Amino acid sequence: MRIFRIVLLAGVFSAAAAGAFASGGGGGGGGGSDMPSTSAPQYDPAAEYAKALNALNTKDYKAAARAAQHVTDAVPKSVDGWKLLATAQAGAENWKGSQRAYEKAVKLAPDDVALHAGLGLALANQKSPKAQDELTWLKTKASACSGDCDAAQLQALTTQVEQAVGGGATPETKPSAALERGSLLFATAAGGDRAYVQAVSLINEKRYDEALKSLDAARAAFGPHPDILTYQGYTWRKMGQLDRAEGYYRQALAIAPNHVGATEYYGELKVERGDLAGARRMLAKLDRVCAYGCAEAETLRRWIDLGGDPGQ
Interhelix angle for 208-222 vs 189-204, to 10°? Predict the structure, then answer.
């Protein structure tokens, strides 16, 4: 059984906004046909995410929107980045911009109740009849709520959107106000540290459903950091969701092309799919990145030699 070490210890994420990719080596070359990009993005999305959160805390919504836009530019499939941008645009009372960002987020996470509520509030501020669609969606979700959902949160969000649709949005029903009161609140840095450490422990215990929840909480605090994305990919892979896992690996490698963890795990995924040629390309990349050798390269080499998990 592989025991995972905590790559970034508690406090490191929040101290530097994950400015250096501890297990990935940051940007640089690499690539090949399997890679989503050949160089790191212009902006460090985790650092820009932290800037946006800090700006939101000081109500500098325009600065928050600029930084959040950098996140979505670097990682277009980051639901947290779009949510952050939507909230910042709402704070700046750019309702159309908020609507567009929420729509992007909803496409990526169609079952997220907070995103539907934010979209409904943004639409209500524009007096758009489409706000009623979001209210109907929330009510349907609330009526079907069982043990797997947060009934109190659903009710609170539904009430906010209902009030906005019925009488027009007030300061208390604007998305920015909802964020500040906590119904759309992002995790704090300290909470993100705890969630990340907890997630690694849960992965080691093979408690994958719980690990995913902790990783979501860490990602909400720190944005699209490649270490978090890599662990999300690994967890989905262990749950048999290979396509979903691949999406997270590719996001991690788009941010940090030389991330050794994501490269190794992507190679393992390819072995599981029977794509040994693709796995060898991942191994060749690790051999280039790890000039003096690394455990990740040796592990992937064993996977390829055995045609599967050497631990089984």
Answer: 150
In the numeric block, which tokens belong to residue 93? Answer: 């009372």
Helices and strands, counts by H and E, the chain: 16, 0
- Dist. CA 220–CA 76, nearest whole Å: 16
pLDDT of the chain along its 312 residues, tens only? 455 544 443 344 443 333 333 344 333 333 334 444 444 557 788 889 989 988 988 899 999 999 999 999 988 988 889 999 999 999 999 999 999 999 999 999 899 889 999 999 999 999 999 999 999 999 998 888 776 677 777 888 888 899 999 865 454 445 444 444 333 445 566 778 888 999 999 999 999 999 999 998 888 888 889 999 999 999 999 999 999 999 999 999 988 899 999 999 999 999 999 999 999 999 999 999 998 889 999 999 999 999 998 887
Contact at 8 Å (CB) between 292 and 55? no
pTM, to two decimals: 0.71
Q: Cβ–Cβ contacts within 10 Å for residue 301, how many?
A: 18
| Cα–Cα distance, 22 to 56 (Å, whole number) | 27
> What letter would DSSP give residue 187?
P
Neighbours of 226 (CB within 10 A): 31
* Residue 116 near residue 159 (C-beta atoms within 8 A): no
Return all residues near 200 (Cβ < 8 A) that are at least 6 apart: 4, 5, 6, 231
- Tokens coding 211: 């690990």
DSSP symbols for 80-93: HHHHHHHHHHHHTT
What is the distance between the alpha carbons of residues 271 and 288, in angstroms, rounded to a whole number?
20
Nearest to 85 by CA among 114, 113, 49: 49
Are the beta carbons of 56 and 184 closer than 8 angstroms? no
